[in-house]
Automatic annotation (TrEMBL):
Protein family according to the UniProt entry: Belongs to the FPP/GGPP synthase family.
GO molecular function: metal ion binding; prenyltransferase activity
Transmembrane regions: none
UniProt-listed PANTHER family: ALL TRANS-POLYPRENYL-DIPHOSPHATE SYNTHASE PDSS1, GERANYLGERANYL PYROPHOSPHATE SYNTHASE
CDD domains: Trans_IPPS_HT
Gene3D superfamilies, per database record: Farnesyl Diphosphate Synthase
Gene Ontology BP annotations: isoprenoid biosynthetic process
Obligatory cofactor(s): Mg(2+)
Protein name, per record: Polyprenyl synthetase family protein
UniProt entry keywords in alphabetical sequence: Magnesium, Metal-binding, Transferase
Organism: marine sediment metagenome
InterPro entries found in the cross-reference section: Isoprenoid_synthase_dom_sf, Polyprenyl_synt, Polyprenyl_synt_CS
Amino acid sequence: ALVLVSTKFYSCDPVKALSLAAAVEMLHTATLIHDDLIDNSLFRRGNPTLNASWGDEETVLAGNYLFARAATFAAETESVRVVSIFAQTLMSICGGELKQTLDSDEGHLTRGYYYQRIYSKTASLFAASGEMGALLSEAPEPKVQALRDYGHNLGVAFQIVDDILDFVGNEGDLGKPIGSDLRQGIITLPTIYFLQAHPEDEAVTRVLSGRYGGDDEVRTAVEMIKESGAIESSTAEAKRFAARSRDALSTLPHNEYRQAMLDLTDFVVERRK
């Protein structure tokens, strides 16, 4: 959706716009397929993951196929710059996942590390979607940067909200257990706020390190984080990035497409699943 709306501010070939949108969607799907495999996730949004249904080898190949198909769609835009941004985004996503896998725990408790990780994981694709859509419509360079900035800030807000929902969301809506990130040892913004305020805590760090005894310990850790004010601090941070995304649109024409982006920003910060 972000790609298609970004192409609407100026003149764009609708066929090329659809090709670009398909490229981004396939790239995103491929990253989710490989992400589920790396995390050994058996369900996504309540449905079995590909690795749960097919097995590891077939899942890797399916993800690789979608990466290649996405690149084909990107090439159909006939824009060297769009294809270059597409490739850079893929490198950013894969590099971020590799860094997260290889890094030790040291340094993970900083907001700086967290923002680097979610840029690679999520915001880079949002930013590229806005930028590539603008380029395809031959927007002036300042407008291209504005739509990239919009996507970047929206993507950060989206991921922060996603991380918050891991603590406060409904398991039925999320399609996964509450506290899934904690169980996998993934340190997100609410956990960072909590541990910075409670550096001597053992209950949460025990779950993060995989040394917990069962679901009751996970639920206790989740409740501790929820009661600490970390959720409210993280929500305020998401809203700050959402405000930056709205500000990035200030120089764009006042029309239905700008309003659609403002509505999208509202949805991102208010969503419950």
